[in-house]
Amino acid sequence: MDKNVIVYSTPQCPWCLRLKQYLDEKKVRYKAIDVLIDPYQSEKMVGKSGQTSVPQIWVGDEIIIGFDREKIDKILELK
Q: Is residue 56 part of a domain?
């Protein structure tokens, strides 16, 4: 899989942890960004998605808000 995957999250968010665990299980490489420690990335996230909620998973121009396994599997072509 050659897709650029970015996960915006916070350390205390249980759904963020579940999302990252799921991606790890599926051997998906991703860049994790903690929006609590990086205000620039937090502003970038909100500017592009219009949402402050996490987790957000960005795959190219596609954005998924929350841990929506069905959408993640479809966009990443996972089984």
A: yes
